[in-house]
Design a protein that fits this description.
Pathway: Cofactor biosynthesis; thiamine diphosphate biosynthesis
Radius of gyration: 18 Å
Order of helices and strands: HHHHHHHHHHHH
Number of helices: 12
Structural class: mainly alpha
Helix content: over 70%
Number of strands: 0
Organism: Apilactobacillus nanyangensis
Strand content: under 5%
EC number: 3.5.99.2
Family: Belongs to the TenA family.
Largest sheet: none
InterPro entries: Haem_Oase-like_multi-hlx (IPR016084), Thiaminase-2/PQQC (IPR004305), Thiaminase_II (IPR027574), Thiamine_Salvage_TenA (IPR050967)
CATH architecture: Up-down Bundle
Length: 235
């Protein structure tokens, strides 16, 4: 199945994400405040674009159940996915509102541009493949941290881990499994060229997930930010 092929080929990148010092820090219960703040700043901007890209799927759909599924997930991102941000903010002792006005960093800008490129192809499979690594890798991180005994009551990141574990709770397997199933159905009518194009979007997005952790851990912003933004780091 197409989904198995995607997971198999992306697995080395997923393993690198598990080994990233930011992710390991979540498991160990300590990440520097600066990294947590940078992450929230960039993820707030990223998710704002993620919502718009999710919405771009709805006009392509013909089935109302699928429309409902994507609409519900837009609502989830808007109203529920603020919880893990609040976890990071509480640990870093900073208000969430103060971190909502950053300019996307170079890697976040690249990730957003990559997703919009998928949208411009007009292919539902390409768009899903560009979006899917985000929920997929987070769910896998939560499962891996739990399986390795890191999701303990005394870990300050426990509620963050628990939040991303819930993707597996639905009878149908949760968001990621539903999207993988959708891709399997779509792939039945796709040419080899279309399969490879969609796979490329998935694998690039998976690497960009690794890059997102990397940029936050080392606070990798624009080198010439004062020139680019005229001294104003706001949108």
């Amino acid at each position: 199945m197409f989904s198995h092929q995607l997971v198999k080929e992306a697995n080395p990148i997923l393993e690198a994400i598990f080994d990233h010092p930011f992710v390991k820090g979540i498991g160990d219960g300590h990440v520097d405040d600066a990294a947590l703040k940078f992450y929230v700043q960039q993820d707030f901007q990223y998710l704002s674009e993620f919502i718009k890209i999710y919405a771009s799927i709805i006009p392509i759909l013909k089935d109302r159940e699928n429309m409902k599924f994507f609409a519900e997930n837009i609502d989830f991102i808007l109203n529920s996915e603020i919880h893990p941000h609040h976890v990071f903010c509480d640990i870093a002792n900073v208000t969430y509102e103060s971190l909502q006005h950053a300019t996307p960093s170079p890697k976040a800008y690249l990730y957003q541009s990559h997703m919009y490129r998928a949208v411009r192809t007009g292919s539902l499979a390409n768009i899903i493949c560009a979006l899917l690594p985000c929920p997929w890798t987070y769910n896998e991180i939560a499962k891996q941290l739990t399986a390795t005994g890191k999701n303990t009551a005394d870990n300050p990141f426990k509620s963050w881990i628990d939040f991303y574990l819930t993707d597996d709770e639905d009878a149908d397997g949760g968001l990621t499994q539903k999207l993988f199933k959708m891709l399997n159905e779509l792939s039945k009518d796709m040419s080899e060229e279309e399969i490879n194009e969609a796979k490329g979007f998935f694998l690039k997005s998976t690497e960009l997930e690794w890059e997102f952790w990397e940029q936050a851990f080392y606070q990798q912003d624009w080198r010439f930010t004062e020139i680019i933004h005229g001294g104003d780091n706001h949108e």
